[in-house]
Amino acid sequence: MRYEGLNELTVEVSPAAARDPKVAVFSGTKFATSTLLADRILQIFQQGDWPDLPAHTADWLALQARVSRLPDRESLLLESFPHDGREHLCIYGFAGRNAQQTLGLLVTKQMEDQELDPLGFVATDYATLIWGLSPVTDPAPLFAPETLRRGLETWLQSNALMKRTFRSVAVISGLIERSHQGRRKTGRQATFSSDILYDTLRRHDPDHLLLQITRAEAIRGLIDFSRIDSLLARTAGRIDLRRLDRVTPLAAPLFLEPGKVPIQGQGREKLAETAAHSLMQAAGLV
C-alpha cells in the first residue's frame, strides 16, 4: 500500500502494485542494555581467552584483538578505517542504545563544525558507527564534555523529541486535556496546540517549570545523557584512536544494523557538487 494522507485519526492508503511489497511489522520497544551487563562484557573481553564461549565467538574476539584491540572500561576505544569509498569512525562506548544514538548526534554535529563532512551514523547498545568524507585524526575536541553538553542543549531546543515529551508532561499537569471517548480531538489538533504552548513558553518563559520537567524527562528517558556523562568521567580523556586499513570484526555487524541516520550537511552538498562536475566533464562542458 502507498501512504496518501492522514484524515483525523484515519490513515488513507491506496494500492501500489508497481512497487516491491513490504510487510508492516511492530518490533517492540528496544530497551538499552544495563550498565551492569555492559561492565560484565568489558570484563570478559580482558580475559585473554574464552573457553566458556562458543568457538566461533572466541575466534571472533581473538581476531579483533589481533587486528585492533578489545574495548575496556578505562579508556574509550575509537577505530578509524576506510570502506566502500567512505571514511568510518567506530565509537565503542558500551553505554546503551539511547546514549549511543545521542552520542552519534552530538559527535556528528561537532564533526560538521570541524568540516569533517559526516554523512550518517548508526548506533547499537555497544557502539556508534559514523561515516563521512574525511578521516578523524584528532578525536579529543569531539569528546570534550562541555562541548557535548552545549551541543545537547542546542539540539534539544528545536528537536521534535522535546515537543513530544512536553505534550506528555502537559497532559499529566492538566494543561492539556486527555482524549476521552465521545469528545476526542484529532491527533493533528492536539499536536498543534501542544506545539504552540511549547514554542510560546520557550520564547517567553524559558525557565518555566514545565520546560524544566520536559528537559529532565527527555534527558533521562529518551536521550540517556547521564550514561554519556558516566562514560566520559570513567575514561577521563583517555581516548585510544586506532587507524586501520580495513573493517574490524567488532565493527562489521554495525554495517548490517537497521536504523541508519543520514546527516544533511556539507558532506552531501560536496557529493552533489562532485557528481555534477563529473557529469558536466563527461558531457564536455568543462
Task: Kindly describe this structure.
- This protein folds into two domains: 35-144 and 233-273, no CATH class; 156-223, no CATH class.
- With 286 residues, it is an alpha+beta fold.
- The longest helix has 18 residues, at 187-204.
- The mean pLDDT is 85.
- It is 45% helix and 15% strand.
- The strands form two sheets. The protein has a six-stranded mixed beta sheet with strand order 7-3-4-6-5-8. Strands 1-2 form a two-stranded antiparallel ribbon.
- The two termini are 45 Å apart.
- It contains nine helices and eight strands.
- It is globular, with a radius of gyration of 23 Å.
- Helix 3 (97-113) crosses helix 8 and helix 5 (160-173) crosses helix 6 (187-204).
- It has helices at residues 35-45, 55-67, 97-113, 145-157, 160-173, 187-204, 209-223, 225-235, 266-282, and strands spanning 2-7, 10-14, 76-83, 86-92, 118-123, 128-132, 239-243, 261-262.
General shape:
globular
Radius of gyration from CA coordinates: 23 Å
Strand order in space, largest sheet: 7-3-4-6-5-8
Number of helical segments with 4 or more residues: 9
Order of helices and strands: EEHHEEHEEHHHHHEEH
Low-pLDDT sequence parts: none
Q: How far apart are the first and last residues' alpha carbons, in Å?
A: 45 Å
Describe the main β-sheet briefly.
6 strands, mixed
Average pLDDT taken over every residue: 85
Strand proportion: 15-25%
Structural class: alpha+beta
Number of domains: 2
